[in-house]
Amino acid sequence: MQTLPETRELTYMQAVTEAQRWALETYPEAIVFGEDIGLPGGPYGSTKGLRKAFGERVFDTPISESAILGGAIGAAMRGRRPIVEIMFADFFLVALDQLVNQAANVRFLSRGEFTAPITVRSQQGFTPGSCAQHSQSLEAIFAHTPGLRIGLPADAERAYTMLRAAIASDDPVIVVESRALYQQKREVRLGGPVEAVGGARVVREGSDVTIVSWSRMVGEALTAADRLAERGIRAEVVDLCWLSPLDMGTVLDSVRRTSRLVIAHEANLTGGFGAEIAARVVTDGFDLLDAPIGRVGAPDIRVPASPALQQALMPNSESIVAAVDRLASF
Amino acid sequence: MEPLLAYRHVRLIRRFEERLVGLKTDGLILGSMHLCNGQEAIPVGACACLEQRDALTVTYRGHGWAIARGLPLAQLFAELQGRASELSGGLGGSPYFCSARHGFLGENSIVGAGVPIAMGAALASYFDGSGSVSLVAIGDGALNQGAVHEGLNMAGTMRLPLVVVVENNVYSELTPVRDMIPTATLVERAPMYGMAPATIDGNDVDAVESAVRQAVERARSGGGPSLIEAHTERLVGHYDLDPQHYRPAGEIEDAMTREPVGRLRSVIGDAEADRIDDEVEQELDAAVAASHNVPFPTTESVTEHLYA
Ligand SMILES: Cc1ncc(C[n+]2csc(CCOP(=O)(O)OP(=O)(O)O)c2C)c(N)n1
Question: Which residues cross the membrane (chain A) (predicted)?
Fold first, then answer.
């Protein structure tokens, strides 16, 4: 008999823990490892209690990112289902070989005889006073790499659902959480069917402009939509959820309804994933547009520590509203 | 080092960081800080062996190293408040102090990343014949990052003038280092990189000074790199708000009996120590006050130094 899914109010971080608990209960082959994630329960608490509940299937590693990622690949090729944590997305950069040259090639080079069903969790983004090597938004690097999947959950419900989808997937999947959202709460339906990796969501309907976003900027887009609504502009907000595989259908359908598009992300503008979406909309939906496409992102900077500067430079609901306003003259 | 001077230095670093906690409580500092309370003897002893021409690279737990290397206190306070200091102009903050004029190549918040960079500074010395030595401080946990092995191996292979000081404070963030390395000591990795090993009490300024001096002389005279394991203890959390649930009860109290400030105080006596304490407080008062006159950066500053 199937048990009914239970709905609970969870923080984003607790949702991440629950998804991992689900994985350890569902897959005997699942293992969870990373720096400080075992006994201490993770530097942010997102693996709290798992070591106690699952013993050595949840374990701490040395500060060795290449070994964490490469180890996950090798273990996965030999039947495990590893879920590993890279503490800050910035630390991917010391071990990029294991993801880009290794994980992404496993299935390709073995013609599918080997697979690397690994899930890599990390988190990124600005928070007040956060430092230059702990604040970068690096999703475009992974989205640029065929063979890798990447998703960026925008709230607790998405964090739970997307992480389960990632874990269930037989490909290497990277789920980049948002540190700024860790304490935000939401109702989360636990258990229930597991989604496939991929798929965007319309999180607010509107008819005048589409705002496409992901991760923390979805919240900013919703705030921008509220402000615009006060002035009679109805913005539709699309949470892209996954950059790979990319659900352009949902984006194009929305632009078909609104004829205007703004894309907003926290990452630097140049070479950001917003450019990819803009290019695809222009290629496949040029006739749907009544105005140029607006892009919002950080202004090609190294991240400054000074909180005053961060506040001034971080894209937010105001920059999204300003971008929508620029389109209004067309 | 003369004990009065040693006390002055360790006390200054300790009180500098305690002042930071106060400034943060007052809302003048945002973001996390990694304090070196308990570890002060290592930068004080080591920097006493360095000349102006030498290069220094340290971890994010580097306030003590910056102070021992002579970076101006007011500028350090200003940088921590996100003001337009002469160091990083407020763009860096706590874990990225640096100053070219002090040969301070900087802190780094990527664990272990400083080792290849320090090796590169030693490489420059090898080519320019300046005789300068490169010293890098890393944590015990950092010894496990891949880049560290590459840097050490290359330094050993080329016999570069590099001195690596491992500040073994027992923990790698929240995890005891003994659970993270298979050998009984860290320093036994040294021979495989062709490095001269040393193990010292890192809470003893003199022990640090003599081991580092030997390593620096060896490096300067073409004898190649050294790896020094300095034992110490963190009297505070990994970062300033760390609740330290992972630490056994009584551990910090026990460490307090060995830490360098109290130890040197008992050597020089309370009367001298109190006198120095007063001077240190005055120096810090003046530096904090001066830091408040440093303006905040403008948003343009963020792109000013991206390219030549
Ligand atoms: C490459 C990298 N991985 C992980 C981290 C997160 N992290 C910051 S400090 C730290 C522990 C470092 O321990 P240790 O080297 O012993 O230095 P200590 O903090 O004890 O001074 C970790 C894992 C990081 N900053 N960089």
Answer: none
Rounded to 5 degrees, φ, ψ at B143 are: -60, -10
Quick: pLDDT tens for A43-57: 999 999 999 999 999
**Beta carbon pairs, A and B, within 8 Å:** 125
Give dist(CA A327, CA A184) in Å, integer: 32
Q: Looking at this predicted complex, what is its ipTM?
A: 0.92
A134 is catalytic: yes
Nearest residue on chain B to A303, alpha-carbon basis: B91
Query: What are B268's two structure tokens?
Result: 């020089």
Inter-residue contact A214 to A45 (CB < 8 Å) = no
- Taking residues A4-31, what's their average pLDDT? 96
Question: Which whole number is the average pLDDT over A200-211?
Answer: 98
All structural domains of chain A, each given as residue ranges with its CATH number in brackets, are 9-190 (3.40.50.970), 201-328 (3.40.50.920)
Q: Which residues of chain B have a CB within 8 Å of the CB of A300?
A: 303
Inter-residue contact A50 to A58 (CB < 8 Å): yes
Q: Tell me the residues of chain B between 203 and 222 that have a Cβ less than 8 Å away from chain A.
A: none
pTM of this structure: 0.95
Any ligand 1 atom below 6 A from CB of B107: no
In short, whether B109's Cβ falls inside 6 Å of ligand 1 is: yes
- Measured in Å, residue A132 CA sits from the centre of ligand 1 at 15
B140 lines ligand 1 (CB under 6 A): yes
Instruction: Report cis status (omega within 30 of 0) of the bond before B297.
Output: no
Non-local CB neighbours of B100 within 8 Å, separated by 6+ positions = none
Average pLDDT of the residues of chain A = 96
Is residue A65 among the annotated active site residues? yes
Does the structure show a pLDDT above 70 at A2?
no
Query: For residue B126, what are its two tokens?
Result: 């090898």
Helix axes B73-80, B270-291, angle to 10 degrees: 60
In the predicted structure, residue A129 carries a pLDDT above the cut 90: no
